[in-house]
């Protein structure tokens, strides 16, 4: 038996008031009256038992309490829902998407569904149990087990996977698990239609258990980080899908959990969307937006985003050798030529390729220098292949140079001996090629544009994110120059490891995460699918083939309303008769 309106249990306060009244009503003192008029009545009380005598004296009270309790039970809408024909195989299909966290009377839908699943399993003791999780990719958690305890443990361990459910694939999997035999398939989701069910199979009955009510919902529909002239900005769209206006408090945190800007409060009208812009943010690599509204679906009130991504613009000095310009264009980079007098106007975040030592020394990072001031040492040399990551994609070959410029004292050697290197690197990442392009055969080799591509890629990695993932999504990211990736939470907790050539699989839980490989670090954001930002509700029903009996109709919840009404009327008539004969209880 279930209850359609368990919230009406508060009406128990009515019989409680009546009960308190009988405790505190006026008491009368019993006295012995020596009169023959009471002899026969005394004889009756003497002959009856104390229990029967107590019932006789307080019959009206007990009748009133029984009527009130039946009335409370009737308000709670008791009923017995038929789950279809019983069979030897019970298949449970559980939707574990984010919308299962939608609340009704403060209780998430997934919690109510799990309670119903456990009750269903206990009612089918002795059957075979199969449990299928309908997440982004359907998964069989338990297959044809005859152990009821194992099925109960599997159901209790269910938790949201946040990815949008593939219900059609899960139901097809359930039909396969039935194996052509009689089976009851119980689907627990928020909403489904009869056309969502697979084609009827004799002996397989589908019972859909859906959400009965649609909760209020305020969601963060869109959220991202933009790079502007005045720094970073965060842009969000907050949508109110409920029938009432909602006051929403917005707070923004960086990847370390620190407040990025002051919180804001706005009112979003029913069915409306509000665009919010947070300007003047400090440099961040990831942001978390929280919209507190007190609605009935909190999962879509939090959004995450990572900054940057993609390659930075490249500015190359117009006076450099033509082969440098052609090699940069071959890399596919966004290349812009500039005059040496325009060097001071170059943006800090850009990559600069120059032949000016003054420009090279004035900038901090993301700069490549060809040649130096002064005269080179004309001493022909062959530079052997380097094992530095900048040459990881270049074929191993010697480079001929007719002469080299003197090295910088505070830089490390990348290619060539320490005393006479061809390529050097500063601590802040600047690269110096100590030869004019005309003094070496390197610009004529395939390794030259590959070297420049590696430089541009390494500079772009400094500020780029790994991108935005859906829960549980797997896809490749730009390979690390130092091996495979390790996945951590933003707080530093280790989660998983991925090979250098393998795809990265995002966690199920939305949030900010970090990919690390040696000294390289890239943030990624896991966000809710767009389908999970809208809550749904629908009727529960049963459909399918019962074998010899034909098709099943919709499941009906049998409510014994008439029986309860008749009992209450009978008790009221009994109260009237008792009061007519004996008066009020004393």
Automatic annotation (TrEMBL):
Pfam families (UniProt xref): BatA, VWA_2
Highest taxon in the source lineage: Bacteria
Domain VWFA: 90-191
Transmembrane segments: 6-24, 59-76
UniProt cross-references to InterPro entries, sorted A to Z: Aerotolerance_reg_N, VWF_A, vWFA_dom_sf
Keywords: Membrane, Transmembrane, Transmembrane helix
UniProt keyword Glycosyltransferase present: no
Domain Aerotolerance regulator N-terminal: 1-78
Protein name per Swiss-Prot or TrEMBL: Aerotolerance regulator N-terminal domain-containing protein
């Amino acid at each position: 038996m279930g209850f359609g309106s368990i919230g009406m249990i508060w009406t128990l306060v009515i019989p409680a008031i009546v009960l308190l009244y009988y405790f505190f009503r006026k008491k009368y003192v019993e006295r012995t009256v020596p009169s023959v008029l009471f002899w026969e009545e005394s004889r009756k009380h003497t002959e009856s038992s104390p229990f029967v005598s107590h019932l006789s004296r307080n019959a009206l009270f007990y009748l009133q309490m029984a009527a009130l309790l039946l009335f409370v039970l009737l308000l709670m809408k008791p009923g017995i829902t038929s789950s279809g024909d019983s069979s030897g195989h019970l298949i449970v299909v559980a939707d574990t998407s984010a919308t299962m966290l939608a609340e009704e009377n403060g209780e998430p839908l997934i919690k109510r569904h799990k309670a119903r699943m456990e009750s269903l399993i206990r009612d089918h003791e002795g059957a075979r149990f199969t449990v299928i999780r309908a997440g982004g990719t359907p998964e069989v958690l338990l297959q044809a087990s005859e152990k009821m305890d194992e099925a109960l443990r599997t159901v209790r361990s269910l938790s949201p996977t946040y990815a949008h459910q593939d219900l059609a694939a899960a139901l097809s999997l359930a039909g396969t698990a039935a194996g052509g035999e009689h089976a009851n398939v119980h689907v627990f989701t928020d909403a489904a239609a009869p056309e969502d069910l697979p084609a009827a199979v004799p002996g397989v009955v589908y019972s859909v258990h859906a959400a009965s009510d649609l909760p209020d919902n305020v969601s963060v529909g869109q959220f991202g980080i933009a790079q502007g002239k005045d720094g970073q900005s965060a842009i969000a769209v907050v949508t109110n899908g409920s029938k009432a206006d909602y006051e929403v408090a917005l707070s923004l945190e960086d990847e370390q959990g620190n407040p990025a800007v002051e919180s804001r409060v706005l009112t979003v009208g029913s069915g409306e969307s509000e665009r919010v812009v947070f300007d003047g943010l400090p440099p961040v690599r990831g942001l978390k937006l929280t919209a507190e509204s007190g609605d009935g679906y909190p999962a879509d009130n939090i959004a995450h985003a990572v900054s940057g991504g993609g390659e930075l613009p490249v500015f190359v000095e117009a006076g450099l050798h033509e082969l440098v310009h052609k090699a940069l264009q071959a890399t596919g980079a966004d290349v812009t030529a500039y005059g040496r007098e325009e060097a001071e106007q170059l943006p800090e975040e850009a990559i600069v390729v120059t032949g000016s030592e003054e420009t090279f020394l004035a900038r901090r990072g993301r700069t490549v220098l060809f040649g130096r001031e002064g005269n080179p040492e004309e001493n022909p040399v062959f530079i052997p292949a380097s094992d530095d990551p900048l040459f990881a994609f270049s074929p191993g070959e010697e480079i001929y140079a007719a002469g080299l410029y003197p090295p910088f004292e505070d830089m490390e050697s990348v290619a060539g001996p320490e005393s006479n290197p061809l390529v050097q690197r500063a601590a802040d990442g600047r690269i110096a090629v100590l030869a004019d392009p005309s003094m070496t055969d390197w610009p004529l080799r395939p390794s030259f544009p590959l070297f420049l591509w590696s430089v541009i890629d390494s500079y772009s990695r400094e500020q780029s994110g790994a991108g935005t993932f859906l829960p549980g999504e797997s896809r490749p990211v730009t390979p690390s120059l130092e091996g495979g990736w390790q996945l951590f939470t933003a707080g530093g907790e280790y989660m998983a490891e991925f090979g250098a050539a393998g795809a990265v699989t995002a966690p199920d839980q939305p949030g900010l995460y970090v990919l690390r490989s040696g000294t390289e670090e890239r943030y990624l954001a896991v966000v809710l699918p767009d389908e999970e930002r809208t809550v749904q509700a629908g009727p529960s029903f049963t459909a399918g083939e019962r074998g010899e009996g034909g098709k099943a109709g919709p499941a009906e919840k049998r409510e014994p309303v008439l029986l309860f009404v008749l009992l209450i009327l009978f008790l009221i008539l009994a109260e009237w008769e008792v009061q007519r004969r004996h008066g009020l209880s004393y």
